[in-house]
Specification:
The complex is a heterodimer of chains A (83) and B (169). In chain A, 42% of the residues lie in helices and 0% in strands. Classes of the chains: A mainly alpha (83), B mainly alpha (169).
Chain lengths: 83, 169
Amino acid sequence: MSDENDKPGAMPFPAMPKLQPGDPAQPGDAPAGDPALDEMSGEDPGRLAPQLRALYEELLQEPIPDRFIKLLDELERKESDGQ
Amino acid sequence: MSAPSPALREALIQSIPSLRAFAISLCRDRNEADDLVQETLIRAWNNLGDFQEGTNFKAWLFTILRNNFYNSLRKLKHQTEYAKSMDSSSFIEPASQEKKLEFKDVIRGLGALPPDQREALILVTVENMSYEEVALICGCPIGTVKSRVNRARARLEAQMEGGPNTPPP
C-alpha cells in the first residue's frame, strides 16, 4: 500500500495490555496476591478471545479500500492548494 | 494549519483496518461502517492540530469515530430502533459463507450483547487495548469498562455453551 516503511515513531500504538496497579479490584476479578492470577485479572482476553479475534481477522486482513486512499489524497491536495 | 506530516498520513492509513472493524461493531452493516470511517478520517484530518503528540493516536481516532457514530444516532433519533436492531445477528457479516457458519454462535452472541458491553469487549479483545484506553475512548471510568467486559464475557460464554443460565445483562 505504501512505499515507505518508516513507522510513525511519534505515534504510540497500543502495545500489549498493561495492568494498572492502582485500579481497585472489581467483583469477578481474580484475588490479588498471586502474581500469576494478577496477570490474568488484568486485560486477560479470556477464552473467547481466539474466536473473537478470528472473527475479526478476516476483516483486519482485507486490503484498505481505494476510497480511503483517494480520500486522503484529496484532503492532501485541498490543503496544498491552500483551500 | 500546516500540512500533516507523511508520518501522520501513514498512521491514519495504518489505522484504517482497525477503524473499520470497530465501525462494523457499532453499525449494522459494512457500507454504513465504511461511511463512518470516511467521516472519521475527514474529521481527524481537519482536527489534527488537536491531537497531542505523544498521546495515543489510535485511541484518539477511535474516540472520534465513536462520537461521530453516537452523534449521528442522536440526530436521527433512532437510538431505540438501533438498540432493538442489535438483537439481530447480522451486524457483522464475514465475507465467506464458510466463516459465517463457523462463527454463527459468536456472531449471534455478540449481536445480542448491549452495545456498551460489545464495544468494550471488542476493544479489549480484538484491539488489545488496555482498560485505561477503552475508558478514554468511551468516556467512562476504568472500573465501568472492566465490569462491562466481564459481563460481556460471562454472557457470551454462557450463550455459546448453550446453557440456560445466561447471566442478565
